[in-house]
Amino acid sequence: MTQEPIDKYRKQLGLQDKAADTITAFSGSMLFVYIHSILFFVWIVLNVSATESWIPFLPHNFDPFPFGLLTMAVSLEAIFLATFVLISQNRQAEKADLRAELDYKVNVKAEREVEEIQTKLNEILTQINKK
Fold first, then answer.
1. Three-class SS of residue 55?
2. Is residue 24 within 8 Å of residue 85, measured between CB atoms?
């Protein structure tokens, strides 16, 4: 099967498409989970500690329980990540359709070649049986 149409498709991807794929790939990794776990832990510790803030420019308990600012940030991130995932899934569906079309063309060509071979084989058998 030829890869040319798939290679052409990849070359046609714009910067936005590549960025969406990269973000989707990263957000689906364990590194993403680890980074977020650490950030959430630090955020919560900074906001529930009874002493003054460890960071000079941050006020003490800048986002008190129930962490409304953190909730909003995570919700916005989830909206954008869901959008990036959908964009990538749509592109994956397009690639799958392209592959299916290529497979179909290869199968049709193979079927024609098998029919030609069968026809020639039948002709040879007919000639052998005549002798």
1. coil
2. yes
